[in-house]
Design brief:
The complex is a heterodimer of chains A (263) and B (387). Chain A is α/β, with parallel strands linked by helices and 263 residues long. Helices cover 28% and strands 24% of the residues of chain A. In chain A, the strands form two sheets. A nine-stranded mixed sheet of chain A has the order 9-8-7-10-6-1-4-5-11, with helices on both faces. In chain A, helix 2 crosses helix 5 and helix 3 packs across helix 4. Chain A starts with a strand and ends with a helix. Chain B has 387 residues and is an alpha+beta fold. Chain B folds into three domains: 113 residues, Butyryl-Coa Dehydrogenase, subunit A, domain 1; 108 residues, Butyryl-CoA Dehydrogenase, subunit A, domain 2 (Beta Barrel); 147 residues, Butyryl-CoA Dehydrogenase, subunit A, domain 3 (Up-down Bundle). The longest helix of chain B has 29 residues. Chain B starts with 6 loop residues before the first helix and ends with a helix. At the A-B interface, helix 2 and helix 5 of A face helix 1 of B. The structure holds flavin-adenine dinucleotide (2 copies). The site of one flavin-adenine dinucleotide has 19 residues of chain B, from strand 1, strand 3 and helix 11.
Chain lengths: 263, 387
């Protein structure tokens, strides 16, 4: 099987995000970048599937991103993926989900695929659109937010679970399909030292848009970010103090009712 | 460049940091409180490949260098210095000595098990009458046919009760102080080997420190490391790596002391100000941060030199001397910033305060480091400006 896992490079979840002066993006100085945490579930699921099949199946990472995304890709290779395609083109500087999906679709078609895993959303822009647009472009089913995945013995279908409000939804899908992965699906492994050593020798195929046969950047003009703004400062905080706690609570209730008019 | 990380080095740092912050942090406070060495943590680190970090691939290792090990040890030590000492001794002393001085048979037999973490390596040098002065070692090793018979005791051996491989320096010739020592590879299963007294220490409580007793302990002569009489040379030759390891441990402790000081000082208000807004607190933070960076540069320099095959005795000693000293200064200042709560077990700084102390004592005391450094410096001046 050809197992594709999608990877996006995003700012570390612990990083403090500041908007740049022009409002065109975030300030990248001093920010650490990592594999999108939800994509790690996708990578792990791809690796687990390969290990279970143990039939020479391959896990290929596909990433559209800047030059610097190499390190995130290398991490996925160190976790155990076999090789990678890195679509990297100056024309992709500020892509919208449609653009990315078109580019990924072309790259994935060129590779061939039997199943695609990705994260349920990227933790930077939280758009969660790429998997759906991609499913449409590749004309395959999608199952989103998977928390369990079981490939059928003949690899022509799979059973999945999705955690929804108040319960689990059991789903069966034909293959090939694109599966977006949620927390709880698995425990992503660490990139072990032997993995890091082997990753050095694994191939990352760099592709430009021209390599993929894309002349015009697709999807421009469909939607674009006008401006990035910092969050408004939090409102004024008032501390209600009193000798006795009951008096403070009484005063707080009065303020909430009479001034804030929320109760 | 000396201080530039390669891509692999960054990945190694990230892997070890993630492991330390998730798995190790989840158990460190409790295992240190209760004095428990966690086999599962060593298993976890073994699964990452850390127990064979400097061993070549043909023996099951990953063939990264001293620099990678130093970076890994700092990350481990930031969370649990007790774990760092076991990992440091295993890699920078036991693995190193077997690799460098073991016969082809010994390497093939033991290194794969050591690299996989199945056999933890420990290093037994210290005796009641031989601490800083290695030449005073008395434990005897007498050759009988194809075996040596070892008699005596080693004390203060880190992880000695968990060992799969024990590197022992014993006396084969009472007549010569320096040529009379020999290094042996002993398995704890050899007849006549046992674990003796367990030390109750001030800190590093999740690392065991024990006496190893040898009573007519029979060791095959094939288990001699190097040759008979090379023990002193082997003991001294492995110091550099060991010292860089402990310097990295001290560095991790100092970094945590700084982290905890700043995080605490931002939360705590007195006299209507956060502690970090007092100039006197800021002076402490500035000193700590400068010292931590300086120590890191010394550690990195020594590690890079060692990886390049250069003589780095002076640099390793400088790194160890400085990092251990500033670690102790940092935990002191950090506890001071914490005030009364820093003196209680509720706060991590109390554990690090205790753990820091020994870094000035083992792997060569600070006095011994100064002796090494001064000797080298005087030699250098002797060459530059002969009298
Ligand atoms: C937690 C812990 C773990 C350890 N783990 C190991 C281990 O795994 N393997 C192992 O073999 N050993 C181990 N040791 C032992 C450690 O290496 C020794 O404690 C250390 O070498 C110092 O030796 P000593 O304790 O005998 O002190 P001594 O050598 O007696 O020194 C006492 C004091 O005298 C000073 N001094 C000695 N000689 C001189 C001199 N010439 N000039 C000036 N001052 C001098 C020293 O600096 C020190 O301050 C461990 C110790 C501890 C505490
Ligand atoms: C073992 C023990 C026994 C104790 N017993 C008693 C007792 O019997 N009775 C009792 O009442 N209390 C007792 N205490 C509490 C002790 O007196 C306080 O811990 C001490 O006064 C410091 O206060 P704090 O811990 O709140 O630290 P903080 O006042 O929060 O100080 C934290 C740090 O900030 C520094 N700092 C604070 N203000 C300034 C400033 N303006 N400029 C510069 N630096 C500043 C401090 O010097 C310190 O380094 C005890 C504490 C301990 C640890």
């Amino acid at each position: 099987m050809k197992i594709i896992v999608l990877l996006k490079r995003v700012p570390d979840t612990e990083a403090k995000i500041l908007i740049n002066q022009e409002g065109t993006g975030i300030r990248e100085d001093g920010v650490k970048f990592v594999i999108n945490p939800h994509d790690e579930y996708g990578i792990e699921e791809g690796l687990k599937l390969r290990e279970k099949l143990a039939d020479g199946s391959k896990v290929t990472v596909v990433c559209a991103g800047p030059e610097e995304a190499t390190e995130a890709i290398r991490t996925a290779l160190a976790m155990g993926a076999d090789d990678a395609v890195h679509v990297c083109d100056p024309k992709l500087a500020d892509p919208n989900p449609f653009t990315v999906s078109e580019v990924l679709a072309k790259a994935i078609q060129a590779e061939g695929f039997d199943v695609i895993f990705c994260g349920k959303q990227a933790i930077d822009d939280d758009l969660a659109q790429v998997q759906s647009i991609l499913a449409e472009k590749l004309d395959i089913p999608q199952v989103n937010n998977a928390t369990a995945f079981e490939m059928a013995a003949d690899c022509r279908s799979a059973k999945l679970s999705r955690r929804i409000e108040g319960g689990d939804e059991k789903i069966e899908t034909s293959m090939p399909a694109i599966i977006s992965c949620d927390k709880g699906l698995n425990e992503p492994r660490y990139a072990s030292l032997p993995g890091i050593m082997k990753a050095k020798k694994k191939e990352i195929r760099k592709k430009s848009l021209a390599d993929l046969g894309i002349a015009e950047v697709p999807g421009t003009g469909r939607s674009r970010v006008l401006k990035w703004l910092p969050l408004p400062k939090g409102g004024e905080c008032r501390i209600v103090a009193a000798e006795e706690t009951v008096d403070a609570v009484r005063e707080l209730a009065r303020l909430l009712r009479e001034e804030a008019k929320v109760i | 460049m000396l201080f530039q990380f390669s891509e692999e080095e960054r990945l190694i740092q990230k892997t070890v940091r993630d492991f330390a912050r998730r798995e190790l942090a989840a158990v460190a406070d409790i295992s240190n409180r209760d004095g428990v060495f966690r086999d599962d943590i060593i298993k976890g680190l073994s699964a990452l490949g850390l127990m064979g970090i400097t061993i070549p691939e043909e023996y099951g290792g990953v063939n990264f260098g001293t620099f990678s090990l130093a970076v890994a040890l700092e990350e481990i030590s930031r969370i649990c210095p007790s774990t760092a000492v076991a990992v440091s001794v295993h890699n920078s002393l036991a693995n190193h000595i077997v690799l460098k001085y073991g016969s082809e048979e010994l390497k093939a037999k033991y290194l794969p098990r050591m690299a996989s973490g199945e056999a933890i390596g420990v290093y037994a040098l210290t005796e009641p009458d031989a601490g800083s002065d290695v030449s005073a070692i008395r434990m005897s090793a007498v050759r009988k046919g194809h075996e040596y018979v070892l008699n005596g005791a080693k004390i203060f051996i880190s992880t000695g009760d968990k060992a799969g491989v024990v590197i022992v320096i014993a006396r084969t010739d009472p007549g010569s102080r320096t040529r009379g020592l020999t290094a042996f590879l002993v398995e704890p299963g050899f007849p006549g080997f046992s674990v003796g007294k367990v030390e109750h220490k001030m800190g590093l409580k999740a690392s065991t420190t024990v006496e190893l007793v040898f009573e007519d302990c029979r060791v095959p002569s094939a288990n001699v490391l190097g040759e008979e009489g090379m023990g002193m040379q082997i003991a001294l030759g492995s110091l550099d790596g060991g010292r860089i390891g402990i310097a990295s441990q001290a560095l991790g402790i100092a970094q945590t002391a700084l982290d905890e000081a700043v995080l605490f000082g931002r939360e705590r208000t007195q006299f209507g100000k956060r502690l970090v807004d007092f100039q006197m607190t800021q002076a402490k933070i500035a000193d700590m941060a400068t010292n931590v960076d300086a120590a890191r540069l010394l550690v990195y320099r020594a590690a890079r030199m060692r990886d390049a095959g250069e003589n780095c005795s002076k640099e390793a000693s400088m790194a160890k001397l400085f990092a251990s000293r500033i670690a102790n200064a940092a935990v002191y200042d950090s506890m001071q910033i914490h005030g009364g709560v820093g003196y209680t077990e509720e706060f991590r700084i109390e554990r690090f305060f205790r753990d820091a102390r020994v870094t000035e004592i083992y792997e060569g005391t600070s006095e011994i480091q100064r002796i090494v450094i001064a000797r080298k410096v005087l030699e250098e001046y002797e060459q530059m400006y002969p009298v």
